[in-house]
Design brief:
Blueprint lengths: L1 H13 L12 E2 L20 E6 L5 E4 H4 L5 E8 L4 E12 H8 L7 E6 L4 E5 L9 E6 L2 E2 L9 E3 L12 E7 L6 H4 L18
Parallel strand pairs: 1-5, 2-11
Antiparallel strand pairs: 2-3, 4-5, 5-8, 6-7, 6-11, 8-9, 8-10
The structure holds the ligand Nc1nc2c(c(=O)[nH]1)N[C@H]1C(S)=C(S)[C@@H](COP(=O)(O)O)O[C@H]1N2 and molybdenum atom.
Length: 204
């Protein structure tokens, strides 16, 4: 009899194989909510730039056409917002941040980064969260050009951290030897924001 109870329990669990992909406290969202502090900036592709500067061997700046000559890289997986929605099975493509850093050459003292955007938003990350194939600058979402409200022309994508780290309308990553808090981090959100550790607010 207890064997049947166990079997039923397993069957119910098996009905939602995606449950294990949701970090603690998150729910599955089928849509794609827009979360922006402020207006969506209008960016002419002829003026668009992406810069790597700070503690690098040589600062590098790419135009829209130039960055598209770099090797393409795609992320397939899940994203997690601190407001508790997660979106499973998304595809973003663009270029790996590793590729951008390789072009600039990182100074040995580089250990943190600050991402800056058209419109003024900033977010900070330890260098280790931007390297090793875990961060991208992306311009396609599910095979279509990234919509302006979701960060188009291009956004940072750091899917293993809460989505506020994935800065929309990115135009610069500055390498630093110390941590400088960004927009939400200054406002009391966690400095790192690992969704699996539920690092939502400072002190979590
Ligand atoms: N430039 C900029 N990037 C940003 C934000 C913002 O307000 N401005 N909001 C952040 C937050 S809190 C989240 S959850 C995600 C939301 O991205 P989405 O609007 O594409 O869902 O973008 C992040 N990147
Ligand atoms: Mo967010």
């Amino acid at each position: 009899m207890s064997g049947e109870v166990t079997r039923g329990f397993r069957r119910r669990r098996a009905a939602d194989p995606d449950a294990a992909r949701l970090p603690p406290g998150q729910y599955r969202e089928r849509g794609f909510p827009v979360l922006t502090a402020g207006p969506t900036p209008r960016i002419d592709l002829r003026d668009w730039r992406m810069d790597i500067d700070g503690l690098v061997d040589q600062p590098v700046s790419w135009s829209w056409d130039e960055i598209h000559t770099l090797p393409a890289s795609t992320f397939d997986g899940d994203i997690h917002c601190v407001t508790k929605w997660s979106k499973l099975g998304v595809t973003f493509s663009g270029v790996s941040v590793d590729t951008l850093f390789a072009a600039a050459g990182l100074a040995p003292t580089a250990s943190y980064a600050l991402a800056s955007c058209y419109g003024g938003y900033t977010t900070n990350l330890p260098l280790a969260d931007l390297t090793g194939g875990r961060a991208w600058v992306v311009w396609d979402f599910n095979g279509q050009p990234l919509a302006p409200e979701h960060g188009g022309p291009a956004r940072l994508l750091v899917p293993h951290l809460y989505f506020w780290k994935s800065a929309k309308w990115i135009n610069r990553i500055t390498l630093l030897d110390h941590d400088v808090r960004g927009f939400w981090e200054e406002a009391g959100y966690h400095d790192r924001g690992d969704p699996w550790l539920e690092q939502r607010y400072a002190g979590d």
